[in-house]
Structure formats: structure tokens, C-alpha cells
Amino acid sequence: MELDFATDFATFDNQNTVSIQSQAGGDPEDTSAIRRWVTEREAAASNGKYTTDDGVFHVSGYGLETDIAIGDTITDTDGAWTIIGRRFEQLTNRWELIARQLSLTDVVTIQLATWTKSEDGIQEAVWNNEHTDLAASFQLVEGKDEEDHRNQHLMPRYRVHLVQTIDTDNRRVIHDGNAYRIIAHGDSDRVDVAFELECEDW
Q1: Which residues contact 177 (CB under 8 A, 6 or more apart)?
Q2: Assuming Cys at both sites, which of 20, 47, 106, 193 could form a disulfide with 161, CB separation 3.0 to 4.6 Å?
Q3: pTM of the entire predicted model
């Protein structure tokens, strides 16, 4: 006999109350969930995107006011997990979330520029926060030798790893109160993160 997951979710054993926190901010939302581990077959089929250390959360969609996004966090009795995959099943009104407990210890803000003209007709950028308090890894990497017409000096470069993909046009990174220009971006080779930025001092 097949169960109607939409109506019979509450009858499943081993349910836990979890808290969903949007990366966009706001108050966390509590709901019911069942968690299992990613199987070896699922991990192999993902071509390295997921591992057997990742959790699969089946989360009831009832009572949730906002959609769940990549990069949001889900917290259960074992701690906080970062959502790295998601699928919503309309028929059963539930989310299937793949989440990972990450070791991203830094926090960054992504700012978006809007352009205005000064009284002199010069275009000026006004920076506003687009994504705040994003979990990230922020690292100083080897710089490049740049010529300033007199000598060679080392220009520092920074690598930022993020869980989710972001738009980079007309944007900059804020970390510990400092601004950084995005000079390159792309998918990350790391298993635990999705996106990588290369930045330099503003």
C-alpha cells in the first residue's frame, strides 16, 4: 500500500523538529523533518557532488512561509547543516534537501552597485547589500608581480569559497569591514562548496 505523503507525514516515526534559517535573514522557521544519509549509490550517481557524509532531509512544506534556497541552513539535534541540494515535490508538498555540515568559518557580504550621476555628470556607484552573512571560506593566496613603472611589488589575491552560486556583475565582497573587487569566478573543485571567487583589494 502506498502512503499519501502529503497527509500521512505526521505518522512517520523518527521525526524531528528542525529549524530552517534563510541566508537572506529573518527569523528561523520550525517544521517537521525526517533525516537519512546519502547512500553509496546516490553518491556515486552524483559524480562527486554528494558524499555519504551528507544528510537527506525530508521536510514538510506545511507552515513554511518562504521557499528554501541553496545556502540556507537547517538545524536539528546534531547541529547546523548547510543546504547544498534541494527538490520540491508538489504532489506530496514536501522538500527533499541534501545538506552538509561544513567547516566554513568566515562570513562575507555581497554588495551590488547601482549607478547614479553626480552634479558634475560623473557616474558614481552606490553599494547596497544583496546577500548578508554568507558562510564562506576567505583565504589569502599567492599574489602576482605587478609593475608600477618603478619596481615589482606583490599584489595580494584572495580566494572566497561559497556554498551557492551568485551573480558577480557589478558586485563586490565585504569581509571584516574591508571591500574586495571580484576579478574571477567559477565552479569550485572542492566537494564541500559550489562556487569560487578570486578577489583583490578594492
Answers
A1: none
A2: 193
A3: 0.57
User: Nearest to residue 21, comparing CAs of 66, 72, 62, 55?
Assistant: 72
Give CATH for domain 106-201: 2.40.10.270
Question: Per the structure block, which three cell numbers stand in for 175?
Answer: 569581509
The answer to whether 143 and 158 are in contact (CB under 8 A) is no
CATH 2.40.10.270 domain locations along the chain: 5-100, 106-201
Averages of pLDDT over each 10 residues, the chain, 202 residues: 42 74 84 92 87 90 83 87 89 90 85 90 91 88 55 74 89 96 86 83 92
- How is domain 5-100 classified at the CATH fold level? Thrombin, subunit H (2.40.10)
